[in-house]
């Protein structure tokens, strides 16, 4: 019985210490999480990940990125259909909108093109 008592006694001081440590880390997480906005690189990573999760297509590049009044706006290039040769693969540009915290609020495909084709809309003013 004395063994049980000493085990209980030795555990009692540890429990408050553990809960104190975890409450301190939660307080730190809350204070940093609420006060700190994501950096532009964090927003880019979140946008790419969220778009890939929703569409099943990995982002190859981000061709446009800006902060707006409502959060963030990006244009993301994805591989929609892989072909051989690679220059014949179908690519797409997606307009992606995120809230100020970097959470995706909407997306839409704005353009579809072959990887090997130049963009006629921006071909030196012709």
Can you offer a commentary on this structure?
With 126 residues, the protein is of the alpha+beta class. It is 40% helix and 33% strand. The protein has helices spanning 2-35, 40-55, and strands at 59-68, 71-81, 90-98, 104-114. It has a 4-stranded antiparallel β-sheet. A hairpin with a 5-residue loop joins strand 3 and strand 4 (104-114). The longest helix is centred in the first third of the chain and has 34 residues, at 2-35.
Biggest beta-sheet profile: 4 strands, antiparallel
* Overall morphology: elongated
Poorly predicted runs:
6-33
Mean of residue pLDDT? 79
List the helices and strands and how they pair.
Layout: H1 2-35, H2 40-55, E1 59-68, E2 71-81, E3 90-98, E4 104-114
From the structure above, extract its key features.
four-stranded antiparallel beta sheet, alpha+beta, 126 residues, 33% strand
Task: Briefly summarize what is shown.
By secondary structure, the chain is α+β, with helices and mostly antiparallel strands. It contains two helices and four strands; from the N terminus they run ααββββ.
